[in-house]
Write a structure and sequence with these properties.
The chain folds into two domains: 9-140, 2-Layer Sandwich (Mago nashi protein), CATH 3.30.1560; 147-253, no CATH class. The strands form two sheets. It has a seven-stranded antiparallel sheet. Helices cover 25% and strands 33% of the residues. The chain has helices at residues 55-60, 77-89, 123-140, 188-198, 238-253, and strands spanning 9-15, 25-33, 39-47, 69-75, 92-93, 104-111, 114-120, 147-154, 160-168, 173-178, 182-186, 217-221, 228-229. With 256 residues, it is an alpha+beta fold.
């Protein structure tokens, strides 16, 4: 395993490959280090193969006719440190791994005018990391706000306890606000684990609610503007039951 600790520029490119429109897209992200130890990001995101789709077909899939996006600007210094840490801690290989799903993902590092294609042992981990970079761009450019999640638990007397989470990808910070503890923060690593846990559960649109029902229970708004009850259904297997109970207890713990 070789270690890579520095770069002048790092370039990420991705293509979804053989997926149908409106979903197929590609992006290129170039992150450059300036002379002042700041980092500039240049993002180009494009959707393709939509020429034969009607406007209605595009809208039905949750997209618009203006999904292409470009942005160039400075990133918080914490991101440069995270990228350098990621580079130095990754296991690198000589050859890329085959990608049977047809997607394309590449990492190119430029240092002292020399470029090199990097092949991580786990390209999936890097793809997730780059998705966080894209989300940070959306926040910095005001295209999207930080991710807000809310959890409310009601006991048999309908007494409520509430806890809210604000995930800022731009600053890699997670703020927690609860009635019992007030506002505090948790580490980004802990926040990542919590997000992964929250979104390991399927939130079905037909089960969504505009308002929290007036009954005891645990209710979560995962950031889409709707509420979902964290409840056990009669056909749930043992693993699903354990998962839902544990998630509810974990979220409650942040409000105590």
């Amino acid at each position: 395993m070789k270690q890579i600790e520095s770069f002048d520029q790092i370039i990420f490119e991705y293509n979804t490959g053989p997926v149908p429109p409106s979903f197929c897209h590609k992006y290129k992200i170039a992150i450059s280090k300036s002379n002042h130890e700041t980092f500039q990001v240049d993002l180009i995101l494009k959707y393709y193969d939509r020429d034969e789709l009607s406007d209605e077909e595009i809208f039905e899939e949750g997209f618009t006719k203006k999904d292409d996006y470009e942005w160039k600007g400075d990133f918080p210094i914490v991101w440069g440190q995270e990228i350098e840490n990621k580079l130095s801690s990754t296991n690198w290989k000589k050859m890329p791994s085959p990608r049977p799903d047809g997607t394309e993902f590449s990492i190119k590092k430029v240092n002292n005018d020399q470029s090199e294609i990097l092949n991580p042992a786990s390209s999936r981990a890097w793809e997730v990391f780059v998705q966080e970079i894209i989300q940070a761009v959306f926040e910095l450019s005001k295209k999207e706000a930080p991710l807000l999640l809310s959890f409310i638990s009601k006991n048999s007397k309908l007494e409520e306890s509430e806890v809210g989470f604000e995930f800022s990808f731009a600053t890699r910070e997670v703020k927690v606000n609860s009635g019992g503890k007030g506002e505090n923060s948790i580490s980004w690593v802990e926040g990542q684990k919590l997000l992964k846990y929250i979104f390991s559960i399927d939130y079905l649109p037909e089960k969504s609610m505009d308002k929290i029902p007036k009954k005891p229970g645990n209710f979560l708004n995962p950031g889409d503007g709707y509420w979902y009850e964290l409840a056990l259904h009669e056909h749930a297997n043992e693993n699903s039951r354990t998962q839902i109970v544990k998630l509810a207890e974990t979220l409650k713990s942040y409000g105590r």
